[in-house]
């Protein structure tokens, strides 16, 4: 049985907020909101300073130590011995049992030992502790520690959900995140002999048990889902954590690290065991040579090459830089014949390094971006080697591979990414050069490799934004240093400013580290489904602070401070506050003056990164339920009531269903039982609440009257469901088959089994249902004479009549449906244009008089992802695609009159607004991310145009 609920006081896993772990794990109480030490010139024997963690007995940061440890022991053993000897300080009872070595980095007399926490033998997500030591004259002392060790974990480690069930549910959750808000022609499952069967675009690989450090701990099965986005064709890498006792996905985020974010196509890290670095490892090394080539900006650069005497050709394989590391090289490969889906996560067959008959590479290598990529990779390698003593991205001199010129479906691909083992650069397009054309982009992507092999900042929420910030900082620092540009230059902070063919630097830039972004004005709370929880949206807040510091302290010192903070202080779940403390501590450790320490503090304060900064965010809406601590379960409304799922204050307990009055009166009611299952996807008509309860092998659809009474089990399903709706005892939902088929089903009062609107035909698909006044509307995919067709169908439950609405054009994609007493509405995409705009279409209930109340082709048309309908209004959630993330690109709510004569913003809130549900009239409830929490809020009328 779960503990009684407390006043909700932690960030949601649905909308990110707070520290890195709070944003990622919905567990702010587990991590550190540390108070920085006062700036002072470090005395010869500094006093010990201990920064406590919150809701853990282990300190977040300990500075000023000079405590002897065993000089002859292995570094990890010496570090754990220190923690054991100081149990009263660290409260780690069995360091040798519960902390396993990750890596040890030695630099001169300094040793940095990273240790991974385990709970009863199971790894703890983000649980990492660092011990810093110094050796001199045959003696070794500990100088400090930092990180996150979660002392409150008590959960058992026996899983009751089978591994195959967890994999299936992880794949289903990923499919839902990627494409289930639309029904497209790609959803067709072909008959045998008719083209090909629908490909299984996604596959899951079990990665073992993990303890998520929420409260007492949540035991989860980690599943990595790879494949291709069924809607866009882009590569997918999804990290999914499935509750090991109920089977519900409790944490989910993308592992793709790209320079622009998922607005452009992106790619996934390499699969475990894929050895891209060894592509030519068994071949004899060709003699080193030197050549040259022209960069895309026209500048001539020297290139380290190899020469193959047998063919008489020069190749872009640099042996010289890694001459002391055996066969490892820095190589640049021609991937212009490869689709991004073929190179991400694997080494594509048939590619070769760029070659030339002479040592001077010509126009083809220049235009492909190969000269830029090869030269820039050498510059980044040299920077880390010369400035920080780091041999390669992993610190051990591993091969550095760059793949250049990849395409998307044979066309333009405007992005670049690090996939865990190599850099991949897109071909560019008419406006953008190949993505290797700017040194700061190359530096950014290669720095992701450095981060991965040091602090390994989890790429989601604030820790992901910190990851991006560090990549931006070092990428730009390398570029500015190489170009000789002054830090006072107004364009010095621009990232990607040299990528464009016609636009100015400032118009072209992806981000500006000198844009003055602050937490109070610019931090945007979003779901992990949007930019991985704001990794690009919010990164400039932290990178801007680092850039300010570089402007005031100079590049050499600032770079040393940031590198030391990254490599010796930061840990995987750090957020902005922990990152600030790491930089301050690293500066102090380097012996900066009091004045310089104040410069570091001032840089962070100017960007609002101070303890408690999250409390400065506000909204223009009425809150109905705060800090839901949920992810992806949605909200519904009807009959003057709302219903939503909510977890407890630390997010460690399974979700429960609550319901309340939409006017805010009275107290919310707990509807679901306290039985250890996850109770999700609730819906109400103001009389009854229905929802799904996830168990170890199946899920139940349950119902309960709002007035009170027993809970009734309506149906048990082994397939996943979504889109639950209820009206006068009729329950509607969408069911997902194991082959990717989708079907709308409904249960009448007393039905033992559901009825499928499409008859359950394997070769038909129905999806995205709505119900009103005895009619069910849904999107339908069905075979035509020569191809599959899309339409919207209305089922009259009283007569059994099905009416397919008339068509305007030929829809390629349909979104959510909505129905009221007079009309049926839906989202439609006829053009599949690059902008992603969708029309809002309306028809009479008999299928006639079809027209667009918001045309798809209209200027400033909506980029809709969701829709909800009352008798008076149609409310749409619309997200504007862009190559740059900002508030204006996030999902906002827009409301139209049912004839489309007026269009207004529902709220002027910042951040993300999702899952709208119409109450009546013009009132809507939704999930709002402005404060960084997932709050359930409402407005009774639109806010206007919001300027």
TrEMBL record:
One of its GO terms (molecular function) is metalloendopeptidase activity. The active site is at residues 445, 536. CDD domains: M4_TLP. Residues 1-39 form the signal peptide. Residues 455-609 form the Peptidase M4 C-terminal domain. GO terms for biological process: proteolysis. InterPro entries: FTP_domain, Peptidase_M4, Peptidase_M4/M1_CTD_sf, Peptidase_M4_C_domain, Peptidase_M4_domain, Zinc_Metalloprotease_M4. It comes from the Bacteria. SUPFAM superfamilies: Metalloproteases ('zincins'), catalytic domain (SSF55486), Tricorn protease N-terminal domain (SSF69304). Belongs to the peptidase M4 family. This is Zn-dependent metalloprotease. It comes from Streptomyces wuyuanensis.
